[in-house]
Amino acid sequence: MLIDSKSLMRRSGAVALAALLAAGPAALIAPPALAAAGPPSVADLSAQLIDAVVNISTSQTVTADNGDNGDDDDAPPQQPMPKLPPGAPFEDFFNQFFNKDGKAPPAQPHKAEALGSGFVIDSSGIIVTNNHVIDGADDIEVNFNDGSKLKAKLIGRDKKVDVAVLKVDPPKPLKAVKFADSDKVRVGDWAMAIGNPFGLSSTVTLGIISARNRDINSGPYDNYLQTDAAINKGNSGGPLFDMDGDVIGINTAIISPTGGSIGLGFSVPAATVQPVIEQLEKYGETRRGWLGVKIQGVTDDIAESLGMDHAEGALIAGVDDKGPAKPAGLEPGDVIVKFDGHDIKEMRDLPRIVADTPVDKQVEVVILRKGQSLTKTVTVARLDEGDTVIKASAEPAVPPKPKTAKALGLEMSGLTKDLRDQFKLGSDAKGVLITKVDDGSPAEDKQVKPGDLILEVGQQAVSSPDDVTRRLDDLKKTGTKQALLLLSNAQGELHFVALALN
C-alpha cells in the first residue's frame, strides 16, 4: 500500500505534537540536552570545606590629635565652651564635653576594627590570610564556623605576595584544607570561593576561572588567577577552591567602580604562595632568590634587532657588580630564555621564578647572545629587598673638545664638565650624550630623552658620536633593519631601545 510522503509527514508531526502536549507545558520550552550544563550541586562539597574557612577580626589602637597640645601649628583651632550663666538649662550638657578651663578634653585613643577571611592549612592551628587583612593589627581574633573564637599570633607575613601566616592553639584538631597544583588550572574550570563578604560569615559563591597570569600592577610578582565567582570586601584572605575541594588560590583583590563584585576577582595562585608560606613557617620571614640583573621586556623590534625569530624572554639591561650574575658571565644584551628548567616566555616570569628559587642553589641559565644559545651556571644569592638601583662605576675618558653627530633623530655629543652639570650627570657617567631628540621621531615615541647616554649600539660599546655613526653604518651594510641601543639615564638605570635604521 502506497502512502503519500506529505501525508506521512503530517501524520508523524501530529503524533509528535500530541506526545509533547501530553508531557505538559515544560516539554514545549525545555532546551535540548547539553553535554555539560554546569556542575552538579556544590552543597556537599561546601559542607565539607566550610569549617576550614574562618573569619579574621582585627583591631588596632588609633590615636587622634585634637590640637590641644600647643605644639601643632597646623591643628584646627580649639572651640571654647559657650559662656553660660550658673544654673542655665544646658550647663550640665556642655560640662560633659568641656573641662574646667572651657576646652574640650584631649581625644582618647580608640579601637579601629576590620574583618577579613582566612583558612586552616594545618589541623594544629596554622591559618593563612592576606597580609593586608592583619596589617597594623594589635589584636587578631579567629572566628570559626561553629561560633568558637581563638586569639591568633602572627608567625610571619610577606607584603609582596600579600600573605600572612597565623597560629592559634585549638582545644582539638581543626578541619584543614590542602593546596592544589594551580599551574594545572585552566581557563573555564569551575571555582568556588568561601569567605565573609561584608562580615556575612560562611558565604559560598561559584564561578569559573576567567583568566590566568593576570598582572594588575599590585607588585613585582603579579600572577593572579582571575575569577567571576563573587568576591567582595571581607573575602580577602579566603580560599578559592577547585571542584576537588583543594585550594587553588587566595582571594586578594577585586576591580570595581562600586566597591562590590562585578565579576572581576583576583586570587594569588597556590603555586606562588606555597613557597612563601613554607618560608614564613620555617623562618618567620621570606628568603627570596636574587640574580643581580636589571631586566626589561623583549619587544618585537628588539627581537628583530637581535636576530630572534620572535619576542620572548627577559633582556638583561644591567648587571650588578655585587650580584651572582656577573661572575657567572651574564652580560647586558643577553636574553634569558630559560632559568632552572623553567621557560621564560616574558620578562615578568623571571622575577617570580628567581624569587622562588632556594638561596645558594646552583641553576642553569639559558641565554641568547648575538644569535647564539649559551648555558651559564649561576649560584642564586639572597635578595636584599632594599637593593634596587644599578649604577655604572667605570671612569669615563672625557674629551676636552667633544665631537657631535646626528643620527636616528638624535643629536649626540661627547661628555664635558659643562654638559655633565647641565644634564646633572655624575662623574662616573660614561657613553655618548644625547643632547636633543627630534620632535615626532621614533626615538621620541620610545621615550628617549635629552640627557640619556648611549652605551652600546648593536651590542658593541661606544664612547664617541663617531663610534655611534660608524656602528650604524656597519649595521646598515649587513641589512639590519633595527639598531639596538643600550641607554642609561642620569640615575644609572639601563634599558634597551630598538630604532629603525631606514
UniProtKB/TrEMBL annotation:
Pfam families: PDZ_2 (PF13180), Trypsin_2 (PF13365). One of its GO terms (molecular function) is peptidase activity. PROSITE patterns: PDZ. It comes from the Bacteria. Residues 77-86 have a biased composition (Pro residues). Its main location: periplasm. Keywords: Hydrolase, Periplasm, Protease, Repeat, Serine protease, Signal, Stress response. Its EC number is 3.4.21.107. Residues 1-35 form the signal peptide. It catalyses: Acts on substrates that are at least partially unfolded. The cleavage site P1 residue is normally between a pair of hydrophobic residues, such as Val-|-Val. Residues 277-371, 377-502 form the PDZ domain. It is found in: Periplasm. CDD domains: cpPDZ1_DegP-like. Residues 61-86 are annotated as: Disordered. One of its GO terms (biological process) is proteolysis. Belongs to the peptidase S1C family. This is Probable periplasmic serine endoprotease DegP-like. It comes from Labrys miyagiensis.
